Amino acid sequence: xxxxxxxxxxxxxxxxxxxxxxxxxxxxxxxxxxxxxxxxxxxxxxxxxxxxxxxxxxxxxxxxxxxxxxxxxxxxxxxxxxxxxxxxxxxxxxxxxxxxxxxxxxxxxxxxxxxxxxxxxxxxxxxxxxxxxxxxxxxxxxxxxxxxxxxxxxxxxxxxxxxxxxxxxxxxxxxxxxxxxxxxxxxxxxxxxxxxxxxxxxxxxxxxxxxxxxxxxxxxxxxxxxxxxxxxxxxxxxxxxxxxxxxxxxxxxxxxxxxxxxxxxxxxxxxxxxxxxxxxxxxxxxxxxxxxxxxxxxxxxxxxxxxxxxxxxxxxxxxxxxxxxxxxxxxxxxxxxxxxxxxxxxxxxxxxxxxxxxxxxxxxxxxxxxxxxxxxxxxxxxxxxxxxxxxxxxxxxxxxxxxxxxxxxxxxxxxxxxxxxxxxxxxxx
Length: 429
Description:
Blueprint: H1 4-11, H2 13-16, E1 38-43, H3 46-52, H4 55-62, E2 66-71, H5 73-85, E3 93-96, H6 102-107, H7 115-120, H8 131-136, E4 138-139, E5 142-143, E6 146-151, E7 153-158, H9 169-179, E8 187-190, H10 199-208, E9 214-215, E10 218-219, H11 224-240, H12 250-258, E11 262-268, H13 272-276, E12 287-290, E13 304-311, H14 318-329, H15 331-339, H16 347-351, H17 353-356, H18 361-373, H19 385-401, H20 405-426
Parallel strand pairs: 1-2, 1-3, 8-11
Antiparallel strand pairs: 3-13, 4-5, 6-13, 7-11, 7-12, 9-10
Helix pairs in contact: 10-11, 11-19, 19-20
């Protein structure tokens, strides 16, 4: 529950915050708009489920209704683009992907700046947020959101079929090949293969092979290291994955593993409950977790703030929006959520031994390993992220299908180079 001073602070929103405190001078309000219900858009996610069950607490303290809309990540991004392009005020708090939407939205002037609020709010304790996560919501020293959940890839594996988890990518491929038996309904591996959607998970393979999407400002997807990563990932899914892998996202691979139809899967640790929930998983009691296997360059998984909260610059309830954000992502709520198995972006939560005990021990070890060696991005760091993912994801599909990966990577690299020239002109806010 919130401390009394926080409750009083929320109840006195108008006295504490003004529109100028959000750096939004010049944005008008419609008559009476500030008194309406707070509208929050969220993605279908374990963090959302955990917070949504507690929103009644905020409503009681603030004396304000909260209307929550939940969507898939693609639906959410499309909704934001339509509404923000139209300067629509009917969104207040937006759950968003700092690595996906932030550069574009900030450049377009769609996001409120939070610097002054964070600097003046000792109770919120911005210094407690992990440095890497803070960097991802900051552009040129200006903060546009707060991170609420972090994630890394973890290796999900069947403990009843594998004596010990593979520690290298080579070992994982060999074991997946050996146990792959589609005739018996068992696949060696399942993972994301849909063109743009596969890029985030593929990034860990790319880094672990010594590559990167961008090298010295130029495309890195045509390098020998990138080509080796494309070839490996395609072979893994082509030779040991289920039919139709090129159409699969998290929503498809989770039930495949949960229904006992795969030996290995690699995906985000933040959604581990979806893989082992007794209500939906037949193998939850037989699922183990391990660190991302090492490639030629070692184990280099991504380690990112996957989702954050931000404020629509056109909102008529920006003061209440900030109070909701500080309630949902402050130290107290963050610890409560991590105690329920949602990995946070705050150092204090990770330092809490009771909180760590809420995760399966081998998953906690996997998370610690990912934090120690991880890379702070899982996609190209550009303005038009969707277009970039589409370009660099093309060789993934080619490799899974057994097409000419080298030719596909070469073409993608040339197109990505042209894209990066245009992107550099767009990066200035």
